[in-house]
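TA notes, week 10

Several of you asked for a full example with nothing omitted. So below is the full record: structure tokens for the whole chain, then the designed sequence directly under it. When grading your own attempts, check the secondary structure regions first.
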């Protein structure tokens, strides 16, 4: 019973991360076109697959196939969300006008955390299926590192960017 509870808790936490990332993206999107609409429908089709993948994973937690199915669903879902943001970033007219480069970089880094952690989990599943779930800790680390990453790669920006982001101006 405990492995099933842990599995559903992890799946719920990962769904929360997906929801949060999706929300952060759309807080900075002003317009949507039909391609963005299609990408989001594809994303949601994999989000609703997560409970089924969780059931397979928690039913067969010690098998590579059961664990891989869950990790692959999470990877594809995270990758589609990353593709969603990449699509919007390449089409500046879809973004809000006052979005700062730091915000773009932070969202990009955070959105990449799930596909990266899932890819690591997939690789670890071939070594030890139960231990592969630990790879998702990487998401929390990347979420915390995102603002630092965005700040460290700072490019010359306009003076008003820091005002829009409510951040102190770096010298």
């Amino acid at each position: 019973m405990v492995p099933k509870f842990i599995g559903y808790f992890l799946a719920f936490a990962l769904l929360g991360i997906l929801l949060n990332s999706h929300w952060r993206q759309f807080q900075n999107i002003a317009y949507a076109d039909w391609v963005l609409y299609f990408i989001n429908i594809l994303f949601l089709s994999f989000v609703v697959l997560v409970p089924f993948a969780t059931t397979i994973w928690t039913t067969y937690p010690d098998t590579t196939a059961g664990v891989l199915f869950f990790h692959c669903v999470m990877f594809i879902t995270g990758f589609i969300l990353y593709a969603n943001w990449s699509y919007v970033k390449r089409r500046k007219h879809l973004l809000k006008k006052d979005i700062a480069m730091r915000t773009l970089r932070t969202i990009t880094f955070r959105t990449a955390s799930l596909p990266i952690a899932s890819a690591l989990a997939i690789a670890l599943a071939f070594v030890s299926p139960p231990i592969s779930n630990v790879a998702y800790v990487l998401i929390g680390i990347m979420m915390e590192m995102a603002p630092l990453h965005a700040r460290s790669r700072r490019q010359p920006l306009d003076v008003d960017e820091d005002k829009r982001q409510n951040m102190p101006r770096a010298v």
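The helical segments are 2-26, 34-47, 50-59, 64-90, 101-125, 137-152, 160-165. Use that as a sanity check on your answer.
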